[in-house]
């Protein structure tokens, strides 16, 4: 193992984990802020991350290009509820047009997923990061997201759009005070965006 790459990967994971943790804490998701991405320190994920570390994108993409799949990603998504892929199950659609479908994600994990995406953009883009980029990245792949539950997809887009248009402070406060279960109900995500 290349020790320099392993150290750089560790520091990148820790930077990302601190950013997500800070957002989760601000939103009142304390346990999720502490436990976010702990599986990245397992040998299955960490060793692959160190081997394929580049610093400008996920090592999972490099592993996928090298061997045709990402063993690290398959391990990660199956253990972390803030990834919509965790929630894919067999479809109960009567005509079985698609054998797999996404289950609706609990809002606490949608919130953590938004913080995860924002933090990944901040880490990998560095000084080039803007609040609009996570939404742009999402919109590029939205047409291929048939396996995400429609409610989850709407919430993802609404929160990313809110982040892009109204900013970090507004969106984190909205998630904490309105969006999360048990909170007072305010405008829907559609109405919050002015639609």
Description:
With 195 residues, this protein is mostly helical. Helices cover 59% and strands 3% of the residues. It has 10 helices and 2 strands. The protein has a two-stranded antiparallel ribbon. Helix 1 packs across helix 6 and helix 3 crosses helix 5. It is globular and about 45 Å long. It starts with a helix and ends with a helix. Mean pLDDT is 91; it is low at 191-195.
Number of helices: 10
Distance between the termini: 52 Å
Q: Looking at the chains present, what oligomeric state does this protein adopt?
A: single chain
Structural class by SSE content: mainly alpha
Query: What is the string of SSEs from the N terminus onward?
Result: HHHHHEEHHHHH
- List how many beta strands DSSP finds: 2
Unreliable parts? 191-195
Q: Strand order across the biggest sheet?
A: 1-2
Question: How much β-strand is present in the residues?
Answer: under 5%
Average pLDDT figure: 91
* Share of helix, binned: 55-70%
How would a crystallographer describe the biggest sheet?
2 strands, antiparallel
Overall body shape: globular
């Amino acid at each position: 193992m290349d020790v320099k790459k392993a150290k750089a990967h560790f520091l990148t994971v820790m930077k990302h984990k601190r950013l997500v943790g800070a957002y989760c804490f601000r939103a009142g998701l304390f346990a999720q802020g502490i436990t976010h991405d702990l599986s990245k320190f397992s040998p299955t994920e960490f060793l692959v991350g160190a081997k394929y570390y580049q610093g400008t994108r996920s090592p999972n993409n490099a592993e996928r290009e090298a061997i045709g799949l990402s063993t690290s990603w398959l391990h990660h998504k199956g253990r972390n509820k803030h990834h919509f892929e965790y929630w894919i199950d067999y479809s109960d659609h009567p005509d079985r047009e698609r054998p797999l479908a996404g289950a609706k994600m609990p809002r606490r994990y949608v919130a953590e997923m938004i913080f995860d995406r924002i933090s990944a953009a901040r880490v990998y883009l560095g000084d080039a990061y803007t609040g609009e980029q996570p939404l742009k990245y999402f919109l590029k792949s939205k047409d291929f997201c048939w396996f995400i539950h429609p409610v989850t997809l709407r919430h993802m887009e609404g929160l990313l759009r809110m982040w892009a248009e109204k900013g970090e402070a507004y969106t984190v406060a909205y998630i904490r005070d309105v969006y999360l279960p048990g909170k007072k109900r305010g405008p829907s995500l559609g109405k919050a965006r002015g639609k």
